[in-house]
Amino acid sequence: MKKSSLVFGLIAAPALLVSSATFANNDGIVTEQCDVTFKNKVSITPEHILVIKGNQTIYDIYNNDTIFYKGEQIKLNASDNELVSRFSNETRSLIPTITEIALEAVGIAFDGINAGLGQFGDSTKLDSKLANVKERLEEKFANQDGHYTFEEGSFNMDFADEELDKAIGEVVEQALPSVIGGVFKMLGEAIANGDTDFTELENLEANIEQEIEARAELLEEKADIVCDKVEELVFLEKQIQAAHPDLAAFDLIDVKHKN
Fold first, then answer.
1. 120 SS3 class
2. Does the N-terminal or the C-terminal CB of the chain have fewer CB atoms within 10 Å?
3. How far apart are CA 233 and CA 177, in angstroms?
4. Strand, coil or helix: what is 254?
């Protein structure tokens, strides 16, 4: 028997499950593809997009088609109003996409957990807990009720909370004994049968990575789309800035692609 196989199995299996759970509670899918920076605090409600500096609202896009500067409406021609409307609608359209990415990240992470359990444990025992975590996260997004706030600085859309952290931790805690027990069982049966081929165990990491790699790549493609949409917003910003003297400081967001 290869001692390294046993050591790897007992160390790698828990590490991979913890890594998957960390991925599940991570909002970094978008930020790994591009650097998004908010130039000011931005608050989005069902009716308003507010650009806030300090305690003062500098710009207010109301109902997607009317813009105010320090409380005074800026009168624009039809084509410039269309720019403001496009900017407002495109900004709002980003939220569901980012939500979808976060939920899919949870699904991918738990697929990785199930991939490990599928080989060395019973994944059905955790199905309800995995479903519960996904449901909590979906509720977390839904409970925003159309209200989102982005602070000045680097992009961060953190919807995690202590209850969600605890639920994810419980999944990992319950999965670990099953996986480790499965590793010992497989080794014991192999030794009893005189089998020294531990290829399946040694390939545990590769098998789990293969399970989630394709979907993770698709998720990265969606994140790239978010980055491209932010780039379009930057382009619209420049056009809006040129539309009226009071809009010269209309500078909400910036983006730099990493790839």
1. helix
2. C
3. 49
4. strand
What is the token pair recorded at 223?
């994140």
What is the C-alpha to C-alpha distance for residues 236 and 254, in angstroms, rounded to an integer?
Answer: 12
Cα 102 from Cα 181, distance rounded (Å): 31
Q: Helix count (H) and strand count (E) of the chain?
A: 6, 9
Cβ atoms within 10 Å, residue 204: 22
Helix H or strand E encompassing 257: strand 253-257
- Give the integer Cα–Cα distance in Å for 38 and 150: 7
pTM: 0.66
Tokens representing 10? 């007992």
**Which one, of 221, 258, 232, 197, lies nearest residue 97 by Cα?**
221
Q: Which residue has the higher pLDDT, 209 or 249?
A: 249
Tell me the C-alpha distance between 255 and 155, whole Å.
Answer: 10
How many residues are recorded in the chain? 259
The larger pLDDT score, comparing residue 4 to residue 132, is at 132
